[in-house]
Amino acid sequence: MVEPSRTLVVKLTAGADAPERCSQAFTVAATAVAAGVPVSLWLTGESAWYALPGRAAEFELPHAAPLEDLLAAVLGGGTVTLCTQCAARRGIGAQDVLDGVRIAGAAAFVEEALAPGAQALVY
């Protein structure tokens, strides 16, 4: 049984450069949302591109759920954050990201990951 007071914080560092790791992080986050768990998904490194409209639809991995659907599920029931430095390195601004995606930095990640009842996973 899921304990709803626990938050799952997922930090994803991979994108198309490591598709299985990328897909697994999105799958875990979306599955947790579906189970009623509060979820915070952080997009860092190459996964930063998935904060942009249309980018998740371009991702392909055989036998995996569409990344676009997984991202929509997390946006619908959890939070998605794009790393400040990762966004800046890629020229991504707040005006560029999908509705519901916020841009925040390491201090916000540490606060979420160390909150009472939080469980952090890094992919």
TrEMBL record:
Q: Which SUPFAM superfamilies does the entry mention?
A: DsrEFH-like
Q: Which domain of life is it from?
A: Bacteria
Official protein name in the record: Putative peroxiredoxin
**What is the originating organism of this protein?**
Motilibacter peucedani
